[in-house]
Amino acid sequence: MACLNRSVIKLAGVVSVVALVAASVSAQPSSPREASIVVAPFGVSGEAPAALAESMRRDLAAALDLDPCIAARADREAPVPPANYILRGSVYAEIAGAETGRAFVALQLVDVETSELLWCQNYDYRGIGADLMARDILTYLKSTAPDCARSRITSSCSGP
User: Fold this and answer.
1) N or C end: fewer C-beta atoms under 10 angstroms in the chain?
2) DSSP 3-state assignment of 19?
3) CB-hemisphere CA count at 13 Å for 127?
4) What pTM was estimated for this model as a whole?
């Protein structure tokens, strides 16, 4: 009987340890960022200064990176680890004229795996900032993108 009692106590101890380990593993935060976007250097045309294009690119990468489901970065080199998407852009600026100047941004979101153009849009930068452009991209990825693109966003991430 004493032997059985010791076995039960040992078993209870093992079960407690297993329960503690399981609880600590399940409490570890899992990375919800499955989708990644590299914002490639923007092209420039018209009177657009390169510094304006670089500033827009960095602002857009920062705005995209605020979303907990997307890891966005403004790398200049090949993405390591590889990204799921590349966001390409081009900036056209008119400096001269009656107005104080206008900047237009054309954006294209490309699937790295298939090289397929998923989304594109043109913006007048006077009327819209990086946060609103990022919102449009995120809305597309989370709502309207094909299933294969949306599946990269984890189920723990909600709406756009």
Assistant:
1) N
2) helix
3) 4
4) 0.71
Q: What is the mean pLDDT of residues 142-150?
A: 83
86: left (phi over 0), alpha (psi -120 to 50) or beta: beta
| Chain segment 7-50, per-residue pLDDT in tens | 434 444 433 433 333 333 333 333 444 688 999 999 999 888 89
Distance (Å, whole) CA 86 – CA 84: 7
Within 10 A of 67 (CB to CB), how many other CB atoms are there? Answer: 22
51 contact partners, CB below 8 Å, separation of at least 6: none
Nearest to 72 by CA among 145, 130, 129: 130
